[in-house]
Write a structure and sequence with these properties.
Layout lengths: L1 H12 L16 E5 L4 H12 L3 E6 L3 H12 L7 E5 L5 H14 L3 E6 L16 H24 L6 E6 L22 H25 L4 E7 L13 H12 L3 H13 L10 E3 L2 E3 L3 H4 L1 H15 L8
Parallel strand pairs: 1-2, 1-4, 2-3, 4-5, 5-6, 6-7
Antiparallel strand pairs: 7-8
The structure holds nicotinamide-adenine-dinucleotide.
Length: 314
């Protein structure tokens, strides 16, 4: 499985991106992006703001927020096109407050981009969750649950609201373990990262089925943005690897964002809800990630951990 996963990563690195050629005009629609202050998240924010959307960015206070506003200024975007609300994905209380602040605005949300992510040494959050599990997966599960009424309000039969979970081709490395979701028996930061990214795809599958069964105008996608040298690799040997390869495959944060924006806006993705995309094409996740029983168990465990009885009111 490791060999298969590595092949998928390497072949991915040698593919070129298919950009969305003409920007799609989505004026005055609201989109929420987590972790939008830098990296792929910031490039996504920029692309969406340029298409006319009002972008609500969830990021931490202090340097993260300052970086966001510096970038808005440099990109010469109208300041009112990007709004910042404090969000620390490692704290379920902060995710709750972020969700509530958006609900209080009383605007329909056309898009939710679950982008914030980390690869970290073993640490427990203040809620007692392993940090990659909490930040990459569980916090976004909670946020999606909280914002579902606004997404449903924004969607129509002609144009559904969309959720994009920024996952990774690391799903294919087979690190998912339903009985050790938080690395209690064995911990390796790359394995924990890949496990959380696999969980995002499983979440995407179950949510898609739930939304379809309730006939709700919301679509959900998981996307691998590409292997790109960003801060996510900063404490990992892989940094050197991406340095070597990024030179000739030319992947940039903006190209990574194009893949996210493709799932978020492209009419071609309309009928492809529930799928995982690599290089803007549907790819089957590995059997472990497609396993229906695992998906259901993960969903139930997540609801239990967060004390959710009816996901998103669905
Ligand atoms: N760069 C890659 O090669 C690659 C590959 C596959 C998937 N991804 C995914 O793309 C997404 C964006 O990552 P990136 O590559 O731009 O890296 P990055 O480190 O530049 O960006 C990560 C973002 O998440 C935010 N974040 C991290 N912890 C947070 C927390 N506790 N609360 C709020 N925000 C938090 C950061 O502030 C930052 O804005 C991540 O989900 C990552 O897993 C990246």
């Amino acid at each position: 499985m490791l060999i298969l996963g590595s092949c998928s990563l390497i072949s991915e690195m040698c593919c070129f991106v298919q950009p969305i050629k003409s920007p799609i005009n989505r004026e005055k629609e609201y989109v929420v992006v987590t972790g939008g202050n830098r990296g792929i998240g910031w490039s996504t924010v920029k692309a969406l703001a340029e298409s006319g959307m009002k972008v609500i960015v969830g990021c931490r206070d202090g340097p993260s927020r300052d970086l966001l506003y510096q970038s808005v200024k440099q990109a010469e975007l109208p300041t009112e096109s990007v709004e910042w609300i404090n969000l620390d994905m490692s704290s379920m209380e902060s995710v709750g407050a972020f969700g509530q602040a958006i609900l209080d605005k009383n605007v329909p949300i056309s898009l939710l981009i679950n982008n914030a992510g980390t690869m970290a040494s073993y640490t427990l959050t203040k809620d007692g969750f392993e940090s990659a599990f909490a930040i990459n997966y569980l916090g976004h599960f909670l946020l999606t649950h909280l914002l579902m009424p606004r997404l449903i309000a924004a969607g129509t039969n002609d144009k559904a609201a969309r959720i994009v979970n920024v996952s990774s081709s690391g799903q294919a490395l087979g690190f998912f373990q339903i009985n050790d979701l938080q690395g209690e028996s064995y911990y390796n930061k790359f394995a924990a990262y890949c496990q959380s990214k696999a969980a995002q795809i499983m979440f995407t599958k179950v949510l898609h089925e739930l939304l379809t069964s309730k006939n709700k105008p919301v679509k959900v996608y998981a996307v691998h943005p590409g292997v790109i040298k960003t801060n996510v690799w900063s404490k990992y040997w892989f940094t050197h690897f991406t340095s070597i390869f990024s030179g000739f495959v030319g992947k940039t944060e903006a190209q990574g964002a194009q893949r996210v924006v493709y799932a978020a806006l492209s009419p071609k993705a309309e009928d492809l809800s529930g799928n995982f995309f690599e290089n803007s094409k549907v790819v089957q996740p590995i059997a472990l990630v497609r396993n229906r029983d695992m998906q259901t168990q993960l969903w139930e465990k997540s609801c239990q951990l967060l004390d959710i009885s009816q996901f998103g009111g669905l």
